[in-house]
Amino acid sequence: MTGFDNRQDQALTHSTIAERSLQWLLASATDAMLIIDKDGQLVLVNPALETLFGYGPGELQGKSLEALIPERFRHGHVGLRGNYFKRPHPRAMGAGVELFATRKNGTEFPVEVSLSPLPDNDMQPMVMATIHDISARKQAEHALQESEARMRAIFETAVDAIITIDERGTIDRVNPAAERMFGYPEAEVVGRNVKILMPAPHREAHDGYLQHYLSTGEKRIIGKGREVQGLRRDGSLFPMDLAVTEMWLGGRRMFTGLVRDITERKHAEEKAQQLLQELTSANEELTNFAYVVSHDLKAPLRGIGSLADWLAHDYSDKFNDEGKEHMRLLINRVHRMGALIDGILQYSRVGRIKEAAVPVNLDQLVAEVVDLLAPPEQIKVSIMPGMPTVVGEPTRIQQLFHNLVSNAVKYMDKPQGEVEVGWADEGEQWRFHVRDNGPGIAERHFERIFQLFQTLAPRDRVESTGVGLALVKKIVEMYQGRVWLESELGKGTTFYFTLPKKRKNKE
After folding, report:
1. Which residues belong to the signal peptide in this entry (predicted)?
2. Does residue 169 contact residue 209 with C-beta atoms inside 8 Å?
3. Per the count of CB atoms within 10 A, which of 119, 173, 362, 501 is most buried?
4. Which has the closest alpha carbon to 286: 351, 366, 217, 360?
5. How far apart are CA 51 and CA 32, in angstroms?
6. Model confidence at 422, in pLDDT bands (50, 70, 90)?
């Protein structure tokens, strides 16, 4: 009996060790694992599973497996479990079907389950299941699907044509915009060389270029836009912008071309060029006209002025009061005509005849303008101290202040006139103003007064050519500033204009 007892003790020891080894394996595994019997009772669960499902140690012991399954699947799962125990074998559970588990708090999550039978002749059949939480993978798959859906939407709805080719130049895909642009349905071009969309000489050069790039890596188009011609199915040509990118898909080198039909842009550029030529021609005609006016009109005008002055002086005793008034008007109108001609010449020169841009000290320049105008004693002209230094053409800057200050003096209707020249720093620009307490201007005239030859007072009452404010506006806008006014009838007017501290380059 002693030998029998030893053998029995050894068998029990081996069984105990095997059982404990399984427990040690489950306890140390990082994957969630459980063992169930044929009735679906949880015989053993490891800590990783308890953590995954939110249960405490030992809390699942003796519970049914269906406690870990969403309620809507529990009834069907009992039948599936029973069928599996009839012919247990290792396999992945739910092939082709999404599986879900439920935590203690009721939340569901996607899982993958692997089943492994634990055969034992002395015990009832049991099954070990390994459970993986695949939430992160599902989220990544969902994000990838969303990204693919967005890319498909962009590909299908893009206004520009998108063409994908392989490294042999064979067309792999085209989007609907490409079908419309080139006149081919996708099925007709897929598998053909992209050269069918190119006219000569691009067609002949394409294979050589592609081969040159593959062998040397030298990029001539890839990553750079270029303007080429496209060839439609009907044989018509059209200008297009082409940008090519390189990518790798499944180990294949592919190239994607983004094509934009620029026919309308080309037409617009041609029209703009034509208008520019017409404008240049018109400017030349205006320049010639200004010189004709200067040379051909000023000479006889000076003769008329001299004759009128001679008559008014030498024959003053021959004129009655009405005759004297007529002579005065004649002389005034001759002088006005001369000033008008000078104004036209000045206006035509702005932006065409340029001086060197230099720093201009406005303290000194504005003081010289006021001295030159010599306003009457009853009109006080004040200049704010510390006027800034600006960079520009001295003659143009002088014309700005001269025209604005002279207008304020010329139209003053108060016995004690006040004119102020001021400035303000507005960061990227200077703002200047000329303020007076004169008659004011009605708001309905705010735009009109900046037009050429426009005056508000009768010309026989106030000598004006109607060029001054138009000249101011043209000069300010040439310097990329703006001019405007504020006024109240009977109380005065303030003219404002700005000059940028740094002039932007015009494209």
Report:
1. none
2. no
3. 362
4. 351
5. 8
6. very high
